[in-house]
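Researcher: Checking consistency across runs. Here is Hydroxymethylpyrimidine/phosphomethylpyrimidine kinase again:
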Amino acid sequence: MKKVLTIAGSDSGGGAGIQADIKTMTVHQVYGASVITAVTAQNTLGVQDVKTLSARAVSSQLESVLNDIEFSALKTGMLANSEIIEEVALKIKKYSLSNLVVDPVMVATSGDLLLKKAAVKTYKEKLFPLAEIITPNLHEAKVLAGLEAEKSIDLEQLAAELMKFGSNYVLIKGGHSSQNNQSRKAVDLLYDGSYFRKFEAEYIETNNTHGTGCTLSAAIASNLAKGMEMGKAVAEAKDYLTEAIRNHFIVGQGNSPVNHVWNLK
Ligand SMILES: Nc1ncnc2c1ncn2[C@@H]1O[C@H](COP(=O)(O)OP(=O)(O)OP(=O)(O)O)[C@@H](O)[C@H]1O
Ligand SMILES: Cc1ncc(COP(=O)(O)O)c(N)n1
């Protein structure tokens, strides 16, 4: 069984972050290990509190797992601040890790901030050049490109801007924005520096999408670990996620998470 590492925040509600990642990895039949960056007090209604761990605590967790276990892929989720991003980048270089999926988590669906503003620059300078793929949503992509949220921009142009930061692939997720999309499709755009490829799925009319980004990036990392090429890894991850959204069940009083284990039925 291939081993996959997630470096992310804990979601006490179980729908996003580390918890979403481990569930996703398990149903993809890879072994999931975790390095925790922050402990969020969170439920389906929002984030009530965040305790970010020190970069040192993140560093020692990384040393423990990387000294011992050989990972075929890894993903990052909530990294919270510049110090943690720098520490993660150092360890990825030190252990020559490949198949890095970077989900540059900035804000929770609930609107709560999960990244310090100054850390955006650190992401671009330190972590993106080491990434196989970065998976920003439309809002994150605009922030990374230094654009105003309201400004409309051609997606291909935006993906090309983000490729300049040095990853091998960029995937811009259009999920949330598709709510305004007449076509009722959830469309994501993959770019490898030469070709654009669109991934279209049915747009499912629901607010129960807590953890979609975490789940997608964990599925992509699992598929890369199993040796899939990027196009297939993204296509299969998106198919898995679409069914996980469709098969959601009610967990709390707010935005419920996706059903990570729909395919075990
Ligand atoms: N209602 C929906 N129906 C179908 N697919 C969706 C829906 N919402 C999101 N998606 C898909 O989920 C994936 C994650 O996209 P999204 O834009 O939600 O990312 P995100 O904002 O990083 O996620 P999150 O913040 O929830 O972790 C994409 O593949 C997107 O197309
Ligand atoms: C620990 C953690 N990591 C990531 C997210 C983003 O997920 P979402 O936007 O679906 O709330 C989150 N809410 N919590």
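Researcher: Does this match what you'd expect to see?
Model: One thing to look at in this run: The chain has a mean pLDDT of 95.
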